[in-house]
Amino acid sequence: MLKRRTFLKTTGAAAGAAALGFPAVLRAQPKQIKIGAVHPVTGPLAEIGQACRLGAQMAVDAINAAGGIKSMGGAKLVLLPGDSETKPDVARTVAERLINDGAVMLTGAFHSGHTMAMVPVAQQRRVPFLVDISAADVITANVAKSVKEGQQKVQYVYRIFPTTTTFGRRAIQFMNEIFKATGVSPKRAVLMYTNDAFGKPQHEGFLKAHKEQGAPFEVVEVIPFPEVPTDLSTEVSKAKAAKPDIICPITRPASATLLLRELAKQRVDILGVISPGAPGLYEKGQIDALGKLIEYTMDSVPWINPISPKTRKIAEEYAKRSGGKIFDTNSGYSYEAILVMADVLERAKSTDPDVLVEAIRATSMRDPIMVAAGPIRFNEVGDNASASTAMVQILGQKPLVVHPKESAEAKLVFPAPKFWERG
Amino acid sequence: MNVTLLGQAALNGLLFGGVYSLMAVGLSLIFGVMRVINLAHGDMMVWGSYVAFFLALRLGVDPFVSFLLCAAALFSLGVLVQRGLVNRVLEAPHEMQILLMLGVALVLENLALVIFGPDTRRTESAYGLETVWLGPVFVDVARLMTFVLALAFSLALYLFLFRSDLGRLIRAAADNSYGALVIGADVGRIYTVAFGIGAACVGAAGALMSALVPFSPAAGFAQTVVSFNIVIIGGMGSLLGAFLGGILVAVAESLGAVLLVPSLKELVSFVLLVLILLFRPQGLFGRKTA
After folding, report:
1. Residue B201 belongs to what domain range?
2. pLDDT per residue over B50-66, tens digit each?
3. A231 closest CB neighbour out of B5, B16, B117
């Protein structure tokens, strides 16, 4: 965990150095640009929310250290952190508060339900909202539709994260490629999902892609479960009764822990666990808690680009500032959102919302720190057209990219050894 | 319908029911004796879980042993809360008591957040992944241990309440606190002990449960709600009702996950609650009192 004291010390020192080192610049500085970031920093998603907040803060620090927004006289970014407490209504009120505190742009909110609660605020208050993480298609699609139909004048909501449609397509594509490469074809799959604003569309996206693209396996059973679950033993018994070759879980941290333990306890005989994209299956806390049970788990998730030297450098710094945690999907996308905002501000040379929106629409940011299919560009609905995922597998207690080949840093293991044969 | 699956679900529910029972017994005892609704019940449980977690992490004590220490720790916490806070509002209207206990719940949750951080934890046990197979049905050893120990703890409580002098006094104070005063019982002390025991029950339940289910500081409220549900179904103030209610709710949820969609399983226990409130408002084992 990041210790408050060390955090205060380092930021304090940095601020002190800035004040002492550049007094002239300080006087010349026109203003600060405030950015509101809402994440679930407490509550069931706290491990993730804290990762997001630290990612965003590190990006702000990096941009300020490199001279701030140069086209605006070196204006410094200031992160206004907000805590949604893992509750949608709180996400909304916090967003309001951050805007009242002077935020000219918003980012957040990790949970699709929370992000949806913030969308009306962004539209009503005319504050550009660059969603860092949230997959549900409707978040941007609904706003784009109402602009098209003339109910809203301008779209203020954009997203750099892949949509559930992208998730589903990539997952099926990667699975097919992996099955072909390894010569193993599972016939029966059980899809288990957390029944919330993320899990439901995510499972629909997967089923839709399965139907459209085809796969060697049939989805023989679909099992939704409540989040936060207290017990998944019956759900797993149900899955086992369907005799699956692979389990495709859409989890969150608490359910991921319960699920993997139950699969091992009940000796569910499968070729592997392959998630179509879900948190809870790659974070350091989860790996520490689950040990060999999480080994070989595959997850088709948006991921940091392990090949990029820029990303590697950030990952090292992140490990230092987080007390050894992994720079992953969550911290990575929150970091990238701030980079995009800085790029937007640089080109907009203004904090006027409509000028910012123009600049967002014209974005073409090369060299993203995350695995992507090209430079960051926003399509007509406001989604990042290049957003992509990678197949990550836990190998040697580390999440490593194993597919697609051009980003792979390790060789995938499939089929995975049985849970009870892992020593 | 798959019979094995149903049997498995019923067994899982039954074995999980032990901890539900134990936590509900604690709540029911506190309510039965003091008429105070302990809204901090679930948060006390989470503290029990954290004690077990750190005993396992630092000293390698298995939660199936350390639950007694957790019970002792929570007994002390219960005594402190009762002496320092609850005692002052015993005569106050219910809403005052509820606000106070809600405050205690908030303090406990946020203290846990400050001290332990928000990460989800689970207590390691040597039996964590052990299973015994009976043909197609398996018995989760950790669940079985939890069940047996929760049963033993409840039995010990029963013997204490019905066979010891202090236990009899507690029951006397629960039945009629004025009468208990008249016969010279130290009702203040009895209340303190009763609150402590209620907290000890939920502390032990928290320790045992932490080996089965992950927990975090935020997990308390949900457990408070489950405890209430069980106690109302079983009958407010009835210990037997709380015990059987715990098992009933656990089995119902487990079967609900098979018969309905798993994400609707919590519906089953709340439908039970509504039915009880409609047709037997005093609960399954509650006495009809004003």
Report:
1. 3-279
2. 999 999 999 999 999 99
3. B16
